[in-house]
Each structure stands twice: as C-alpha cells, then as structure tokens.
Design brief:
This protein is of the alpha/beta class. It contains nine helices and 13 strands.
Length: about 300
C-alpha cells in the first residue's frame, strides 16, 4: 500500500476516538462509545467498528489504551478502564482483522508523543507529561526517546508517593499523587470544605473540577482553597520529577489543565521551592496544547516509528 496515512486510535473508558493521520493532519474522525463495562468482547467490537471505516486507506494502525501495556509484544496486560481485559494480544487480534501492522501503547505515552512532536513540547529532548482526569498518568521523553522502563511501566506519576502516611489510593497504597489530584478527590476536598464554609458550589448538584475552577476564578473562597491545595500537591510531585529526570518542560494535560493560573501558580511555586538547585535549572511547567487530538496523533506516530520492526 502506498498510502502514507495511519489510523490513530485513542481508547478511553467512555469513548473511542479514531481518525486518519498524515503527519499532524487529522481527517475522517470516528467516534464510538466504548461500552467498557460490557465485557471484553463488546468493547473489542467497538474498537473494531471505529477502525473499520478507515483501515483501507491506511498503511498501519496505532492505538493508545489506558493501563499496563506491553508495547513490544502488543499486549494489554491490564486496563482499569476496560472490564475483562487481561493479557489481551490486541495487536495480533487487530492485525488478523484488518491485515495491517498494529502497534499499541499506554494512552498517556501516546499523549506525550503527540505533544512532543506536534504540540507544546516540540523541540525539547527531555519532557515529562502527566494527564489528570479520573486517574493521573505520566510519561517521559528522555534524551529524545520515549521512556518505557524494564517492564513497560515507566512514568506512573500518579502512583508516586508524596505522603507515606497519606490517605489510601484506589490502588490500595497510601499517599499517591492520584489520591490528591484525581478528579473525584478534588471534588471530595471541595465538599469537605463546603460543610464548614459557605460557597457558591453548593448551588451545584453535580460538581466537577471544571466547575470548581470557574468558581475559583470568580473568587469563591472554597474553590480557591481547593485549587491552591491541589496545585501544591501536584507541585510536590513535580519537584520529584525535576530531581529524577531533569526535564526541560513539564506538560500537564487533561481538563484540569485549562484551569489557568489558579492551578499553575501554586504548582510552579511548590515545585521550585522543593527541588534542589532550582536557581540553576531551566525548566517550564505548562498546559498541554493539543487537547483530545494528542492521543490520536501520538498513537499514529508510534505506529509509524515502529512499522519497521518485525510484525507481531
């Protein structure tokens, strides 16, 4: 096949987004429900249905999936978003279905690749990105290469410890960044404060970090306290990344990254105050720039970079 197009796919717990990608140009977008709780066969059918209208015009397929991914073997070892997915040889299954080379990687790795090559981290060789949503994921570019680690688990920023006596994380361990910065924990912190202080947030039956951010920008005391604390916790974690990886740029992705200065000011302040030699380091902490396109672009790029490897 002479086409230079690649199918890029971002598989989330709620939605699947797929598109044809040429360089950084995205076309023919497909969206589908994941039906993640419907079990393995149902969610696999949804992934296939998103790829099917696109694959004939593409030379390969790249897919980002949340969880523990063995990119070398093309296996989803475990995905917290997809019920019943354990040791699934996804690349092999989809290659048999579509007769195209298939590469898979962790979804945050895909976002990181997208922002590195086409977004806010373009031109930097040492990058750390973390995405904040329901959970907190991380990925790193070190000396111009995506970091996988010995077991493919590198970059799990959300499960780094900032307080060993802190509250229990959803993974069962204590004091992880995710336990302070994950969306439901931001909301829980707001509700706890609302029980003691008046807040416009009481007007909302359903709270989200985005609603809290809007209230904070308008001066609501509870909302501002929530974001000051959230930024402090994230900044604490970022200081550890700065010490370990010495990145030129730290990118924050996910809906919370649109909160602006109410989040980034405390992050930057905490990170600089806690990292050794801050006055001698040159780094910046910035929001992601590509939004939902980053995962599609990164997955496609990974497939393109890996297409010369032996087929799975």
């Amino acid at each position: 096949m002479k086409s230079d197009a690649i199918v890029g796919v971002d598989v989330g717990g709620t939605n699947i987004a797929a598109a044809l990608v040429r360089g950084r140009r995205i076309s023919r977008r497909i969206a589908a429900d994941t039906f993640a709780q419907g079990g393995f066969e149902r969610s696999l059918r949804q992934i296939k249905s998103a790829i099917a209208p696109l694959h004939r015009d593409a030379r390969s397929i790249g897919i980002g999936v949340a969880g523990i991914i063995d990119s070398h073997r093309g296996v989803v070892r475990y995905s917290p978003n997809l019920r019943g997915w354990s040791d699934v040889p996804l690349a092999k299954i989809l290659r048999a279905e579509f007769d195209r080379p298939v590469r898979i990687l962790n979804d945050t790795n895909a976002i990181c690749l997208g922002e590195w090559k086409f977004g806010v981290a373009r031109g930097h060789d040492n990058v750390f990105l973390f995405s904040i949503g329901t959970g907190v994921g991380g990925a790193a570019i070190c000396e111009g290469k995506l970091l996988f680690g010995a077991n493919g688990f590198a970059g799990e920023f959300g499960h780094t410890v900032i307080d060993h006596q802190g509250p229990k994380c959803v993974c069962g361990l204590r004091g992880h960044v995710e336990r302070y910065a994950g969306a439901k924990f931001i909301v829980a912190r707001a509700r706890s404060k609302m029980a003691r202080q008046k807040s416009v947030l009481a007007e909302y039956e359903v709270l989200t970090p985005e609603i809290i951010a809007r209230a904070a920008r308008r001066g609501d005391r509870v909302a501002r306290e929530v974001f000051a604390e959230t930024g402090y916790y994230i900044g604490t974690g970022v200081s550890n990344l700065l010490a370990l990886f010495d990145p030129e740029i730290v990118v924050i992705a996910g809906g919370i990254a649109r909160a602006g200065s109410i989040l980034f000011t405390p992050i930057r302040k905490a990170a600089r105050s806690m990292v050794m030699g801050a006055e001698h380091r040159r780094f910046k902490i910035v929001p992601a720039s590509l939004g939902d396109d980053a995962g599609i672009l990164g997955a496609a790029l990974f497939s393109k970079l890996a297409v010369s490897e032996p087929e799975l």
